[in-house]
């Protein structure tokens, strides 16, 4: 039996293609070769074998390891360990005899010369015995490590191949198969400074494999494709239209179009970690990958050889760094959050990366983690850089009352709010303040008398936007008021639109998608 070690791995979003290599000795004529190393999660239907010209395969079988050998190699090592342990027990017995013989009270008459000679010889004999014991223990430790590695291989499957060779030769044999217990996830590190109009996006990969075998010193390349997901071309079915009456309940359930105010999901800022004074240390720079020229997906060849340990949270690798133009703005949504956020305004066409999570660093301080998933239908998207403590916010209810409208059979709700934006720093700050008025989806509901001085209003969504410059150590106040009129005897109901209505969030990579499986990583969607 020949063990074929892993030499090259191509890792996809939710699978991998593993290539192993071994040297085999062939005689002229028919040969039987047994190669070990095929994991239980390997796809047997994907198995491919490669031999030099002049060697023809006659038969290929995949069988369990224990059916290919009469006796497991790990059992031989177990016998070796038992033999060494017996030697240690013998040495312990000899040591005990030497020590007990040194008790001259239980022995007969001994001369002083005999006692003196024994006492001088005893330490060296004991040290010699203990050195021998330590050497045996070291051999047992090495054998246990070897046994552990061999036991991992014994749970693998083996490939029995019948080959026909035209002449005796030493030949290289390569085995390639698809592995279902390996994948990689993309993640980003976004770095910028307060006064920069650029952000630096480091694309990183976390490679995970649970094959039961460590990939040691192998060439690794990563691909954005996902071969485990069916590649069928979508088929358009006939689409028919018909009319039906809409009942009141259906009207109430209909979602009105409103502003999605949960776009960034930013986490609280965290203080940076300092180093002890006097230590000169810089951020570790990792070699980036070479981008591969592929037609249908993006590929990255990682530099050098890598070791990816099985059963861990993953091995990290840097893929590339992109520099992207971004305009910094402070965003305030006082209706939902009393915190202000620093955001980078980025043109959607300038963002070259797939949706993923990103860790944000502002001035080398960790600000938190966000999900970056631009809406490609929008010209610009905003990337949260974390909470901005330079701005203080409040939104106070000045008036919220309901009154009857005489002669019209209506009720009127009156709303008025005071929005205050405080600059805690000395220099002026440019701030965007977002709020909203409700949007009616029923002609019997009228929203009017809107007062929002200085704000732009999107009539379709009801979104309000103030672009303000708040001077240092000052507070700006903006008033918002509006009325809502509706028929008496009715209940006014508010509904909020869901910007990702009909989409499911992938539990593995965090992407939003439709259907049964995530198109990014292939994980089933609940």
List strands and helices in order, with pairings:
Layout: E1 2-3, E2 6-11, E3 16-26, E4 29-38, E5 42-50, E6 55-64, H1 65-68, H2 73-101, H3 112-154, E7 157-165, E8 169-179, E9 182-192, E10 198-209, E11 215-223, H4 248-253, E12 290-292, E13 299-301, E14 306-308, E15 315-325, E16 327-332, E17 339-347, E18 356-362, E19 365-372, E20 380-405, E21 410-423, E22 429-436, E23 446-451, E24 456-457, E25 463-470, E26 475-487, E27 504-505, E28 512-513
Helix pairs in contact: 2-3
What does this protein look like?
By secondary structure, the chain is of the alpha+beta class. The protein is 16% helix and 44% strand. Strands 23-26-21-20-17-16-22-25-24 form a nine-stranded mixed sheet, with no helix packed on it. Strands 2, 3, 5, 8, 11, 12, 13 and 14 form an eight-stranded mixed sheet that branches. A hairpin with a 4-residue loop joins strand 2 and strand 3 (16-26). The longest helix is centred in the N-terminal third of the chain and has 43 residues, at 112-154. Mean pLDDT is 84; it is low at 248-281.
């Amino acid at each position: 039996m020949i063990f074929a070690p892993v030499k090259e791995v191509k890792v996809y979003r939710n699978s991998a293609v593993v290539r192993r290599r071994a040297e085999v000795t062939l005689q002229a004529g028919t040969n039987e070769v047994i190669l070990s190393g095929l994991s239980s999660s390997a796809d047997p239907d994907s198995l491919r074998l490669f031999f030099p010209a002049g060697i023809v395969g006659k038969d290929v079988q995949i069988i369990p390891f224990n059916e290919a050998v009469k006796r497991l190699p790990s059992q031989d090592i177990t016998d070796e360990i038992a033999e060494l342990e017996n030697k240690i027990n013998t040495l312990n017995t000899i040591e005990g005899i030497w020590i007990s013989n040194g008790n001259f009270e239980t022995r007969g008459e001994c001369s002083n010369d005999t006692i003196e000679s024994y006492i001088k010889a005893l330490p060296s004999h004991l040290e010699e015995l203990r050195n021998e014991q330590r050497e045996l223990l070291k051999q047992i430790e090495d054998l246990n490590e070897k046994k552990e590695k061999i036991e991992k291989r014994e749970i693998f499957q083996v490939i029995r191949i019948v080959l026909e060779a035209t002449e005796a030769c030493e030949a290289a044999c390569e085995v390639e198969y698809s592995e279902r217990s390996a994948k990689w996830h993309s993640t980003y590190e976004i770095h910028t400074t307060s006064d920069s109009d650029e952000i630096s996006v480091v694309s990183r990969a976390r490679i995970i494999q649970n094959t039961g075998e460590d990939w040691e010193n192998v060439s690794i390349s990563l691909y954005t494709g996902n071969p485990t997901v069916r590649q069928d071309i979508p088929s358009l079915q006939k689409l028919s239209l018909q009319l039906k009456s809409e009942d009141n309940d259906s009207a109430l359930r209909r979602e009105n179009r409103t502003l999605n105010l949960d776009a960034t999901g930013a986490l609280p800022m965290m203080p940076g970690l300092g180093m002890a004074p006097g230590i000169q240390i810089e951020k570790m720079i990792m070699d980036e990958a070479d981008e591969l020229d592929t037609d249908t997906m993006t590929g990255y060849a990682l530099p050098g050889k890598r070791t990816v340990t099985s059963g861990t949270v993953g091995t990290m690798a840097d893929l590339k760094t992109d520099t992207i133009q971004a305009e910094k703005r402070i965003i305030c949504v006082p209706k939902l959050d009393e915190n202000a956020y620093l955001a980078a305004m980025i043109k959607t066409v300038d963002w070259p990366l797939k949706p993923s999570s990103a860790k944000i660093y502002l001035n080398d301080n960790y600000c938190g983690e966000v999900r970056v998933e631009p809406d490609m239908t929008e010209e610009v998207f905003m990337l949260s850089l974390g909470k901005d403590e330079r701005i203080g916010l409040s939104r106070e209810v000045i008036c919220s009352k309901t009154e009857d409208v005489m002669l019209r059979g209506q009720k009127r709700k009156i709303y008025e709010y005071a929005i205050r934006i405080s600059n805690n720093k000395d220099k002026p700050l440019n701030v965007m303040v977002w709020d909203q008025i409700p949007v009616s989806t029923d002609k019997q509901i009228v929203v009017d008398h809107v007062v929002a001085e200085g704000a732009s209003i999107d009539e379709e969504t009801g979104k309000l936007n103030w672009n303000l410059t708040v001077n240092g150590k000052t507070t700006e106040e903006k008033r918002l008021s509006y009325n809502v009129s509706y028929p008496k005897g009715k209940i006014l109901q508010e509904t909020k639109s869901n910007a990702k209505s009909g989409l499911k969030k992938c539990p593995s990579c965090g992407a939003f998608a439709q259907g049964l499986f995530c198109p990014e990583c292939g994980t089933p969607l609940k």
